[in-house]
Amino acid sequence: MASEQAGKDRAEAADRQAPARAQVTPAAPQASRQAAAAATAQAPARPADGSAPSPPRAAAAGAARAAEPAPGDPEMRRRILMRWLMWGSAFVFFAQSALAGLAMFWPRRVLGFGSKVDAGPVSSFPAGSVTKFREGKFWLSRLDNGVIALYWRCTHLGCTVPWREDEQLFHCPCHGSIYERTGQNIAGPAPRPLDYMTVEIVNGRIIVNTREIHERAVHLPQHVTPV
Ligand code: FES
To test the ligand 1 pocket, which listed residue (160, 175, 178, 186) has its Cβ within 8 A of the most ligand atoms? Predict the structure, then answer.
């Protein structure tokens, strides 16, 4: 009987303690969930590929600020210098591009055919010489009494007429027209002498105006500019 009584006492004692456990047990999962949430908020996110998580952004920014060199630091001066070099290079590049664009639209001063050509000082051309000026498309013929600039276009069909030093004549290779050093035609199908350009002597220099080309039926002394 005593053992039965002892068994009942233990059962009653267990029944008295059971509600207390029933009240504690539900609270435990909630506390653990809150603790887990706090830990998740503070813990860095793990990348999807499973690699090591990166430190929090605030921590990374703080580290970057800490790594930033202070003003006056050699590293800071180097960075400033590099920045100026970069901007300077960009400025030079854009300035060159702008100047190139302007140059395309700037009116050009034509110095060759179609403009006045400075042939050089009179003393550079001895009497009897015939000098070719490719840019101005003329032959400068130095005569005894002056100079004449002859347009090198044949008056027959327009071929370029070369001076033949061996013949001391202009001889057109196309159809054989021949001209004297004055430009007078003496053979071939050419209908008239070579055309001549206006020449003026300025401060001892021969200036040929390749815009002013004159036709003539025959060579005359007044076509020669005295020097
Ligand atoms: S083009 Fe010179 S002779 Fe005909």
Answer: 175
